Amino acid sequence: MQVYCILGDERALRSKSSAMFSAILTKMGMNGAYVPFKVLPENLGKAMQSLEILNIAGANVTVPYKEAVLPYMDVLSEGANIIGAVNTVVCTDDGLKGYNTNAIGVMDALSSVDFDVSDKSALVFGTGGVSKAVVFILNWLRAKTIIVAGRNFEKAEQIVKRFSGEAKPLDSIADHPMPVDVVFNTTSVSSKSESSNMDGILKKLDLPGCQLVFDLNYGRSQNFWEEMAQKKEIRFMDGLPALAYQARRTFALWTRAQVPPEEFLNALNENNL
After folding, report:
1. What is the Cα gyration radius of the chain?
2. What's the total number of domains in the chain?
3. How many of the other CB atoms lie within 10 Å of CB of 86?
4. Domain residues for 128?
5. Are 204 and 121 within one domain?
6. Which helix (H) or strand (E) holds 218?
7. Which of the residues 108, 149, 187, 265 could staple to 173 if both were Cys, CB 3.0 to 4.6 A apart?
8. What is the spatial order of strands in the sheet that 75-76 belongs to?
9. Which residue intervals of the chain are DSSP H helices?
């Protein structure tokens, strides 16, 4: 049996990845299991060592460790090295190899709704590993302008210096109209209970001409990104399509099996995930 896992804080235990990958393993007739592991920050190094010790075949890395696992990788793919974040680990005889399938998952999700970001302007909320992946793919797809808004302004500046764009403090983003074509939420918050500050910012945010709000989170019963989009009559998409598309890429890295993305989307829908 091949064992795969997801590593993160307590949010790993709530991730839909476990049920989704388990369904795909069953569908493909593979003898495998996928399990979530909650890891404390001080134990991250030991957890990465344990992947090899326990003969884990592959791992997903979720918030808040996508950047923190970099020093524990023996090899980085070109994409993971450029982006500076890892969400997929392949355990090989030569050690741990880190990949980033977040960026291409976002690209595939945008393509699935026929949204072309080339020559368009984007506003990206957040400064973590997912933000790096989004800003990277926006540059790759030739977005015209990219604004990164973060609570940590220094991290926002680091991201735009790494790729390109303009950094803005989060609390200043609603001070004047933001005429962008697409908004991405790469933070971990999507509801007032998670951040009353972000809720207040979104209620004041003016987005003339915006065509799409893309929240990389999912599973919120109340989502202030979706509520904002509905009030402004902007198309909304949550993170489930991106999850399915990046999972397809991850599964291929682990197993070399090319599974259509529809199977991952069906696994989410059939299991009411």
Report:
1. 18
2. 2
3. 30
4. 104-237
5. yes
6. none
7. 149
8. 32-38, 2-8, 58-61, 88-92, 95-99, 75-76
9. 17-27, 44-53, 78-83, 102-112, 129-140, 153-162, 196-204, 224-231, 240-255, 261-270
In this structure, are 87 and 6 located in the same domain? yes
Q: Tell me whether the omega of the peptide bond preceding residue 64 falls within 30 degrees of 0, making it cis.
A: yes
Contact 221, 192 (CB under 8 A): no
Q: Are residues 75 and 150 in the same domain?
A: no
Per the annotation, the verdict on 66 as an active-site residue is: yes
Is there a single domain that holds both residue 90 and residue 124? no
**Cβ-count burial of 117 within 10 angstroms (0-12 exposed, 13-18 middle, 19+ buried)?**
buried
CATH assignment at residue 247? 3.40.50.10860
Rounded Cα distance, 107 and 101, in Å: 10
The answer to whether the predicted template modeling score (pTM) of the entire model surpasses 0.90 is: yes
CATH number at residue 176: 3.40.50.720
Tell whether 60 and 183 lie within a shared domain: no
pLDDT tens string, the chain, 273 residues long: the values are 999 999 999 999 999 999 999 999 999 999 999 999 999 999 999 999 999 999 999 999 999 999 999 999 999 999 999 999 999 999 999 999 999 999 999 999 999 999 999 999 999 999 999 999 999 999 999 999 999 999 999 999 999 999 999 999 999 999 999 999 999 999 999 999 999 999 999 999 999 999 999 999 998 889 999 999 999 999 999 999 999 999 999 999 999 999 999 999 999 887 555
